[in-house]
Amino acid sequence: MYPEDRVLVGVINRKRDFEKLQVEHWYRVPQGQAEQGVYAEYIAFFFSRAFGDLNGGIHYYARRTGIELVRRCDLLPEEPTHPRAQALYYKVQVGELRPKSPPILNRGHRAISFIYTTWDRFVVARDLADLYSEADGFVDRGFYALDHQSLRRERLPGRRME
User: Which residues lie below 8 Å from residue 3, measured CB to CB, with a gap of 6+?
Assistant: First the structure.
């Protein structure tokens, strides 16, 4: 685990999705919400109100081990008549689920779908707002995003990329 490792936080809204994550070790991301792909070394999981005591928090994460592009109906064959059955999704394979202790809570009750952050922010975060921190000492997210896209980038002494 390196400070610049990327972490994607995704939402789990249904208990059966969490069961698939636990048993089959995969999570789905609609291609339309990640048109450039899913570029993260770790996936963290934010739980919605369907989860009672876990509601409004990131309680687990896992290392991404693979990814493939598949139709929703192939991921969830038990839902063949779903309106988005033919839509493309990234099937993100993950390793062992690990608890995030302490969990990252949503004290500000922000509505979220996906959050990209860095490992150094993730490990110290206690609130969702911490995942966006621009405080000194954290990895420069802009620099690494450009680096990953193979775009020309340059750091100027004493300046952070925004």
Answer: 118, 119, 120, 138, 139
Which CATH number belongs to the domain containing residue 21 in this structure?
A: 3.10.590
Considering its fold, how many domains does the chain have in total?
1
In the structure encoding, which two tokens stand for residue 145, read together? Answer: 């995003």
- Start-to-end CA distance of the chain, whole Å, equals 24
State residue 112's pLDDT score: 82
Please choose, from the candidates 96, 71, 101, the residue with its C-alpha nearest in 3D space to the C-alpha of residue 84. 71
Is there a contact between 45 and 10 (Cβ–Cβ < 8 Å)?
A: yes
**Is the separation of the CB atoms in 122 and 42 below 8 Å?**
yes
* pLDDT tens figures, 5-32: 999 999 999 999 999 999 999 999 999 8
Interatomic CA distance for residues 103 and 156, integer angstroms: 36
The one-letter amino acid at 158: G
